[in-house]
Amino acid sequence: MSIPNHAQEAQDRYFMMLAIQQAKQGLYTTRPNPAVGCVIVRAESVVGQGFHPKAGQPHAEVFALQDAGASAVGGTAYVTLEPCSHTGRTPPCALGLIDAGIKRVVIAGLDPNPQVAGRGVKLLEDAGIEVTVGILTDQAEALNRGFLKAMRTQMPYVRLKIATSLDGRTAMASGESKWITSAQAREDVQKLRALSGAIITGSETIIADDPQLNVRSTQLCVSADQVPTPKVVVLDRRQRLQYDPKSNYQLCRQSEVLYWREDDLVKLLKRLVSDHQCYDVLVEAGAGVAGSFLKQQLVDELIVYQAPCLLGIKARPMVEFSPLSLAQQLRLDICAHEKIGPDLKLTLQPL
Ligand SMILES: NC(=O)c1ccc[n+]([C@@H]2O[C@H](COP(=O)([O-])OP(=O)(O)OC[C@H]3O[C@@H](n4cnc5c(N)ncnc54)[C@H](OP(=O)(O)O)[C@@H]3O)[C@@H](O)[C@H]2O)c1
Ligand SMILES: [Zn+2]
Fold first, then answer.
1. Which of 54-58, 108-112, 114-118, 239-243 has the highest mean pLDDT?
2. Which numbered atom of ligand 1 lies nearest the CA of 201?
3. Is 210 in the pocket of ligand 1 (CB under 6 A)?
4. Could you give the count of Cα atoms lying within 13 Å of 141 in the half-sphere of its Cβ?
5. pLDDT of 3 above 70
6. Which of 81, 243, 246, 309 is the most exposed place for a label (fewest CB within 10 A)?
7. 6-142, superfamily in CATH?
8. Domain 145-350 is found in CATH 3.40.430.10
9. What keywords are annotated for this sequence in UniProt (predicted)?
10. Global confidence as pTM
């Protein structure tokens, strides 16, 4: 592995950015596989590019090498994740790069699985290829939060989404909550769902709202039927809900819904990774469930859609959480803010 000089690094960053743009095309469709992009460069020009579109289909490197054809010989490959070294449904990409005559490989980040990290690099280096690792690593990792966290910790990346009023209210005391935020904000939530392997909700939300919790947007970069359907999980310790083809609740008419009857949310999250390969989990529920996830420090990212309206003190709070002193407060860091239609979208991380 070599450390790049500054001019080389600027060029590497540029081409890696193009590889990340390629990877983004698979963002909603590759689950449970990571979104990966590859760009082949020869004499400072892009001669081939590709991305991994779907589990079971060829990896990004295969498409990029096909695109480049004979121009790949002597070229540099930019890949957003370490090329694979094992024979799965497709032959190892590291060997594909070697066979195509690639001279140098630039990788944003190593394979996160500690048992396999570095093996792709070793195969390439053993074949005499120069390998550079660590270009735009943060941007590339941002594409695959769930996959990377699950490979490293066997826990999924958890996003908690809450729609609130300006005074932090999430529903009227009666349970009425359709709709606090705008159609544009709800359209944006479709992207969060499309990223998620599983969506967790609470029994009270089903009873109050009868939600669909599906991906139905027409405004994603791919059509909604290309997006693998997120697994819906209903938290229901008192067993008030179950599968019933004649149920009044639309989710209860679907046999694939998982009902979680236990109190242990860590066990559920681990189970979603090990049994269902759900690496990105979205919590869309009321204040009760939201409070439980936050209090147990299970939230990686909180996404708040805040509408400029006031619902008053009798309306439901944002999270059921009652610290007794300021010292017990839960503090978060604002990572991003954006106006979506008339509403504000805040992305936060618990400190
Ligand atoms: N603004 C928004 O973003 C938004 C989103 C969704 C819903 N809502 C509104 O929120 C209201 C419902 O809120 P809610 O707080 O009553 O319901 P909720 O959080 O959706 O569900 C609460 C139920 O989940 C079950 N549960 C299972 N495990 C739990 C755990 N570890 N922690 C907490 N609950 C657990 C509990 O029933 P068991 O004891 O039987 O397990 C509990 O009664 C509705 O009016 C809905 O319209 C708003
Ligand atoms: Zn591969």
1. 239-243
2. 20
3. no
4. 15
5. no
6. 246
7. Cytidine Deaminase, domain 2 (3.40.140.10)
8. yes
9. Hydrolase, Metal-binding, Multifunctional enzyme, NADP, Oxidoreductase, Riboflavin biosynthesis, Zinc
10. 0.95
